[in-house]
Structure formats: structure tokens, C-alpha cells
Amino acid sequence: MSQVKRLLLCCCLFLLAPLVLSVEIADSRLIPSPQTHGAFLLEKWQPDAPSIIAFKDPYCPYCIKALKKLDRLKGYNVFMFWSPILGEASKAKVDEILNCQSPVSLAVFAAVVNRKKVDCDRPAGAKAGGDLKYLNEQIVAHYDPRSVPSYYFGGQKVSISALDKFKRQLSSAVKPVQLNWQRYQSLKLPQQHHSGLANVIVFAPKHLQQQTAFTDALKADYRYNWFVADLSCAGKACQSSKQARLSAELRLLLAADGREQTTFAINGMVLQPERYQRFISGEIIDLALLSPANVGN
């Protein structure tokens, strides 16, 4: 395929990209970490900020345009990788970039935007540049972006405008309750190297907590950090374990005691059932409403 055709394909695919959260999911979510992929972070790692993976080709005009508007990514941890999908010239340029100590430095961006040779600090040691090339190729091969620029959040392909819109919906509809979230970390489901856009507490009955399908569905929704608490307890059972004590504390703080069905609270605000569909996926809602008799069927 000629360079011109590849360029047109890149631009057309970008224009046709959906402006809503996509259901395209990587085969298995390889999420970059600041420890291993710190050289690809645009800014210093923020432990509580959500993370985004960005893929760009140094010769894609939309990528160059996006490099001039990095301010719109404020508030995220952004890992930027170079995906040379436009041919041999792009591959050569990416190799040049990955020989820099920082492949996402202002010097690199200036060279890409101005179509000039990259003038940057070189990494110490002959192996360092090769390490960056390996890490870049590993992530690019794993996600295999078919268009650029492409953005991924929690392993799912997204548009930045859709993420921003969802964040605005959360901030306008949810009045957060100040909780010491660190205190409740033992209730949090593991989501590797990832921080969601909001914290969600699920007050769930024991039979539901024990269902792998339910916890897997929660972990797969990377929009949120998920905390699973007990829906109820009685008598001495409320003090029988750390989870029981913390769950009872959260029910008291959020006035969630006495509920009979699975209940969701976003950023400490309990949602009414009629609002579930606006913020909670249909799969999670369906699983949450299963009775003990129907679980596993």
C-alpha cells in the first residue's frame, strides 16, 4: 500500500471513530505500570488519577494536531506509545524516537510537529534504547491499533470526548460524600495498575459476592474502582471479620442499612434503582438482581 493510501486510511478511520465508549477490548488487558513504562508517561505519575494509553504515528496529521492539544489530557496518567502504521518512513522515525532517553519529551514532540530530525538526550548504556523499543513494540503488538491517534482506558478503546462527557455526567449527577477511601482498601477489587473515574461501593449479599461471574463483571468495568461490602449482617456477625466491620460502618455512614437488594453507591452517594441504568452496565444490574435460587443457573 502506498504512503498516500496509508495516510488516507489513517485519516478516514480517525474521522469514523465512534464518540462513545467502545466495547472493543484487548484480548487480555496488559496495563502499563509506572515502574516498567515510566519513560512513556507524559507527566509525573499521579497515584489517584485514571490512566490512558495513547497510540500515535509520527507522520499522521491528526496525531500531530493532537500533540498540540495535550492540555485536554490533564487529570489523567497518559502513557504514549508510537505505532508506526503508515509505512517504512514512520518505522524509521519511531526507531529514531526510541533511541532518545525520553520518547515522549518536548524535544521529540517538537521534532515530530515540525517534521525535523529528532535532537534529544540519549540513554546511558547501549541496552537502554533497546529496552524502550522492546516495551513500545510489546504494547503496540498487544493492542494492535488499526488507526491513530487511538486511546485506551482500562484495555477498552475510547474517545477522549466520551470520557470527558462521562466525567461531567458524574460530577453533575453525583454529590460525593467525603470518605477515607484508604481505610476501605481491603474491600477493593484488584484492577492492575489502573484507577477508575470514580469509586463505587456495591452492597451485595454473600451469595452474590461468591459468584465469579459477578466479580468478573465488576472488574471488567474499568470506569470505576469497585469496593464490595456486605449488604447486611445481624448481631455478632457484624463484628466477625474486618470486612463485616467495615461494611457495617459504610452502611451506617451512607444510610444504606435495611436494604434487601444489591445497592450501589458512587463516590459515597447511594444511587436509587431508577438511576442504575445511567451509570451501571446492564450485565452488572442483571447479575445483581439474581436471587440465591437463580445464581449459577
Automatic annotation (TrEMBL):
Keywords from the named record: Signal
Domain of life, per lineage: Bacteria
Entry-linked Gene3D superfamilies: Glutaredoxin (3.40.30.10)
First and last residue of the signal peptide: 1-22
Designated name of the protein: Thioredoxin-like fold domain-containing protein
Species the sequence originates in: Thalassomonas haliotis
